[in-house]
Write a structure and sequence with these properties.
This protein is mostly helical. It has 2 domains: 5-81 and 146-287, no CATH class; 86-133, Arc Repressor Mutant, subunit A (Orthogonal Bundle), CATH 1.10.10. 66% of the residues lie in helices and 1% in strands. The protein has helices spanning 5-14, 16-27, 36-53, 62-81, 86-106, 112-119, 123-133, 147-151, 158-176, 180-191, 196-203, 207-229, 243-265, and strands at residues 268-269, 286-287. The protein is globular and about 70 Å long.
Length: 288
């Protein structure tokens, strides 16, 4: 028998770092212009589908099962981007190598002019190579590990895909609507592979405080999801008229509004932000 709704919510929230880890790992093996947003979206949907399809009676650890599903989804997403010519692939590799070399020498990302001088080409050629790189990726299949083939038998019905997509909308909205400091903690610990000590130093608080913020944030995420999918699982407040409860209700309402807006408008939400780039502006942001 598959997991209950509460299991699905817990599995998704608790294993969200797997998405960030696998996306980050892949981004180290492809050109820097590959869309992090598109990979993150594919990975998040795969995580939700894995949680819905997971059968505990198989005794296969969910983390292992979800990782396979996520990797397969990311490979499929990468293949869907792979439509450039062989020449474009070569130029993209040369650009990536030059970028890495100059970054090591300069200690920063090189400019278009610096890349052009290093490669002995015009600046427009650098721009063209970057544009090509945005439309292609390197093959990530590992010999002897046909991940995509392993996952093809895990089919979902249209209804299951729809429900999973709705849960992804809610998860994204729930993270987006977290109070600012909680968003920063979730982004750092779960999506950017930062340590508690590092976050504590950045935010000027103790490590124990970071742990408290993490616990508070995860509780809000679970309650935000359960409020939408199974309200009976949300614990009754000890003080229904208290300030804390009013804030929680306002949070639930804002999550519902954002989820409805993103679903209606067809907006795409960034699940895994670029590490250390605008992290303190919030975990998720709406993009065109």
């Amino acid at each position: 028998m598959n997991s209950t709704p509460v299991d699905v919510t817990d599995l998704v929230v608790e294993h969200l770092p797997i998405v960030g880890y696998n996306v980050s790992e892949i981004l180290h093996r492809v050109p820097p212009t590959v869309s992090r947003d598109e990979l993150a979206s594919a990975g998040a949907l795969a995580l939700v589908l894995a949680a819905r399809a997971y059968d505990p009676s198989t005794n296969v650890p969910f983390a292992r099962y979800a990782t396979l599903r996520i990797k397969g989804a990311l490979l499929d997403e990468l293949r869907s981007m792979d439509w450039a010519s062989r020449g474009a692939r070569r130029r993209s590799r040369e650009l990536e190598a030059a970028t890495d070399r100059l970054r090591g020498v300069l200690g920063r990302t090189p400019t278009r002019t610096e890349l052009a001088e290093t490669l002995g080409v015009a600046v427009t050629a650098v721009d063209e190579a970057r544009a090509d790189a945005e439309r292609r990726v390197l093959s990530l299949d590992v010999p002897g590990t046909p991940v995509a083939e392993t996952l093809r038998d895990a089919q979902q019905t249209p209804e299951e895909h729809l429900l999973a997509g709705e849960r992804v909308h809610w998860l994204r909205a729930a993270v987006t609507e977290l109070p600012e400091r909680l968003r920063v903690v979730i982004a750092g610990l779960y999506l950017e592979d930062r340590s508690i000590a590092e976050l504590a130093e950045d935010l000027g608080v103790t490590q124990s405080r970071i742990s408290q913020l993490r616990t508070e944030a995860l509780g809000l995420l679970r309650d935000g999801l359960n409020t939408a999918f199974d309200p009976d699982l949300v614990a009754a407040p000890s003080r229904p008229d208290g300030v804390a409860e009013r804030r929680r209700q306002a949070y639930y309402a804002s999550v519902a509004a954002r989820a409805a807006l993103s679903s209606t408008a067809g907006a795409t939400l960034d699940v895994v932000p670029t590490p250390r780039s605008g992290a303190h502006d919030g975990v998720l942001r709406t993009i065109a």
